[in-house]
Amino acid sequence: MLAEIHAHLKSTLTVPLWSQIEVAEDIDAVADLAGQLDNGSLVIAPFRELASENPLTTGGFRQRVAIQFLAGVVIRHYGDFLGEARALQFDTYLRGLESALAGWEPPSAISPCQLVSGESSPVTKGVSIYVQTWQTARFLTGA
């Protein structure tokens, strides 16, 4: 499903505002990679799966699995002691990301994407990343 999300974001988010849209393996890779990316880069990564119980008690198997993924926006701006200039840029990027994802349903999903949470963090001097957690779902089926 991550490939579908990546393709959707690459086709929806426009240059020059968004400089790169990359995929990382996990949250640690996002933090490591962020300091090397250009201003306005977006990094997505898988986060977690949360499974519900199988509701079928008389045979068959169908389990709902919530899929969470991360979307991190990288902002670079130096010479700003408190990070005000970086923090003020987040809104522009986050509204664009939210417009691209909120309510969009990946082809292999059973529910649209919805925002779970978000958090800002400095990465290195002059570089910050704002990471949002998004969620959709799929069914796991069996005999």
How would you characterize this protein structure?
The chain is an alpha+beta fold and about 140 residues long. Helix content is about 25%, strand content about 45%. It has three helices and five strands; from the N terminus they run αβαββαββ. About 25% of the residues are buried. β1 (about 20-25), α2 (about 25-35) and β2 form a beta-alpha-beta unit. It has helices at about 1-10, 25-35, 85-100, and strands spanning about 20-25, 40-50, 60-75, 110-125, 125-140. The longest helix is centred in the middle third of the chain and has 18 residues, at about 85-100. Strands 1-2-3-5-4 form a five-stranded mixed sheet.
Largest beta sheet, briefly?
5 strands, mixed
H and E string? HEHEEHEE
Proportion of strand residues: 35-45%
Question: How would you classify the helix and strand content by structural class?
Answer: alpha+beta
Contiguous helical run count: 3
Instruction: Flag low-confidence runs.
Output: none
- Write down how many β-strands occur, each being a DSSP E stretch of 2 or more residues: 5
The level of helicity is 25-40%
Radius of gyration: 17 Å
Question: Any idea what the shape is?
Answer: elongated
Mean pLDDT: 88
Output the strand order for the largest sheet.
Answer: 1-2-3-5-4
Distance between the termini: 23 Å
